[in-house]
Amino acid sequence: MIFRKNRLLPVLLLIAVTLSACNRVTGTETPIQPPEISVTETATPEVLPPSDPVEALLAQMTLAEKIGQMTQVEQYSLKAGDSDKYFIGSVISGGGSVPTTADTREWAETFVPPAAPQTRLGIPILYAVDAIHGIGALYGATVFPQPIGLGAGNHPELMRQIGQATAEEMRAIGISWNFAPIVAVPQDIRWGRTYESYSEDTQRVVALSTAFIQGLQSLPKDFVAAEGQSLYTLATPKHYLGDGGTAFGTSTQNIFKPYLIDQGDTQLTEAEMREYFLPAYQAAVETGAMSIMVSFSSWNGTKMHAQSYWINDVLKGELGFEGFVVSDWGGIDQISENYYEAVVTAINAGVDMNMVPYDYVKFINAMERGVMKGDITLERIDDAVRRILNVKYQLGLFGDTQSNLGSLDDIGSEAHRALARQAVRESLVLLKNENSALPIAKDADSIIVAGIAANDMGIQCGGWTTEWQGETGDVQPGTTILEAIRAAVSPATTVTYSQDGQFEGTAEIGIAVVGETPYAEGVGDASDLSLSDKDLQVITNLREHSQKLIVILISGRPLVITEQFPLADAWVAAWLPGTEGAGVADGLFGDYPFSGTLPYTWPRSKDQLPLNTHTVEGLTGCAAPLFPFGYGLGVGSSQPAEWLNCPSNMD
Ligand code: BGC
Ligand code: BGC
């Protein structure tokens, strides 16, 4: 379909595009000289097209077609007919942006991949979604634990399987591109993206993210690949570079509150950048990652989208990255108030595709102008497009995409849910266990469960579920923690649910499920990580009415629980487990041992923050964290003796 013999057509189209580009530039901008592009732009008639299909295609493409490849548009802002008119290369469904929330078939059949573009060259569109814990946006998808829980589980082989299962669900709706994994190495848990990241520890991030990338990208056994296909789906390690190191209070993003850290400034030396953050990219490149997303954040005052040194020299040069670099959502716009300058700077810094996401015509105009003024060379554009087309080939998108679609039966399948349940139980970190509170006997007389998080699917899934920010309530089919407890106990056991923990009499076991409500990105930035008054009340109420009290924390990061800690006999950090709450019950009732270990250092108070393996050195006694990185009872850790002696812990 794509290799036309007519070599005159590109020349004609080029002239047409050039003229139309000139027309589109507004009168307020400086006059533009005709571009010196015709020589390199077209293959001369006597030269045979290169045998490499990507080179052959590139040789036929007009400037407009090439710029289109570099343009990614949010699906709901793409006007009818425009993807063909502007030769759009990629489409994204942002957080919560689904065609019709519950209709997977519509997503698969109508939207993806705007299957056969009606363009001259028919170059397929690459469709992207943020499937950071399964396709959270898709109703009925398997929602795996958020990365923080997988970081606690620290099980690379399981990560590979989760990557593959996620890819299967993506392929079922025809989506080939996943904006995951986040390989940030957060150094400050006040950052709202802590839960999207595996760990504060570089090595843990490397081990888990590379396994996940393998799962997303490797062709499964027995898979019938399309022509040229070597990638199952495309992973995107993000956000390059230093997103987890931004200093508190340096955020430049003021649209949503609080944005204290997110999109801020990473004030570290180059050596520290290389030590903390670069290894995950090096490992990802070695594992075969073919797209990498740039970070909104800055490095010592300059936006990463403008950092030619880090993108061109280090990533593409030193690390030998051969895939393409995508901007973050409107990230280029943040470089300068002058949009044209921002675009030129980012493209020359090495950004190959712009996640625009809305005003694609403005971007396309700026690109054309950049070429005409000689601010962006055609070599740079060819390099970007070559990288993008290569990946499209490797994804098999030029093959028969319809027959290449996965099966809708994979979405939320039993096998995937079983995998998610395993991931949940492995993610549980046992922080405290006294008076043999755990495991709970399945034939206990009476159990009282309390707290809003005990029976709320939206809360246990967290952000990037249904909506960008996530939401409370019945957002996805699955098992809540309360339902899982009810399903685990003997028929003789009474399980009572009381949202606020008020109860007549005394139960043998009280289980308080408390923590955070959903958020995403900078909206989740916070300076105070203590439990809400409501949750504190739940714990105190339940303490009065239960012989043994167990607290389960549902949260996207360690919370400050020092004062409440003595109140309960047992504490379990369950993070944001996703749809399979049964995995929590697997741990509580002793069907499986607790095996999770802390992926982040746990602070004793908010005044200790930022606290991480780098800042913790030398802190002892009551100045030490409540729990160190890697802590977890049941796997060799024992209760740190010191916390008991600290004044703030005496009730
Ligand atoms: C998110 C998108 C989301 C959008 C909403 C972005 O920052 O990443 O996925 O839909 O904001 O404005
Ligand atoms: C986020 C990215 C995400 C993109 C698309 C941005 O706001 O920073 O992580 O991939 O939106 O949703």
Commentary on this structure:
The protein has a 6-stranded mixed β-sheet, sandwiched between helices. Strands 4-3-2-1-11 form a 5-stranded parallel β-sheet. Helix 4 packs across helix 15 (378-394), helix 8 packs parallel to helix 9 and helix 17 (414-427) packs across helix 21. It has helices at 8-24, 38-41, 53-60, 63-69, 82-85, 104-111, 147-153, 156-172, 202-217, 270-276, 278-287, 308-318, 339-349, 360-372, 378-394, 401-404, 414-427, 457-461, 481-488, 533-545, 582-588; strands at residues 71-74, 90-93, 126-129, 177-178, 238-240, 265-266, 291-294, 298-299, 302-303, 324-326, 354-355, 429-433, 446-450, 494-498, 507-515, 546-554, 570-573. The chain has 21 helices and 17 strands. By secondary structure, the chain is α/β, with parallel strands linked by helices. Mean pLDDT is 90; it is low at 1-45. Helix 6 (104-111) links the parallel strand 2 (90-93) and strand 3 (126-129). The radius of gyration is 26 Å and the shape is globular. It binds beta-D-glucopyranose (2 copies). One beta-D-glucopyranose (BGC) is lined by residues 94-97, 329, 468. One beta-D-glucopyranose (BGC) binds at residues 94-97, 329, 468.
Keywords:
651 residues; alpha/beta; 6-stranded mixed β-sheet; 5-stranded parallel β-sheet; 32% helix; 11% strand; disordered N terminus; binds beta-D-glucopyranose
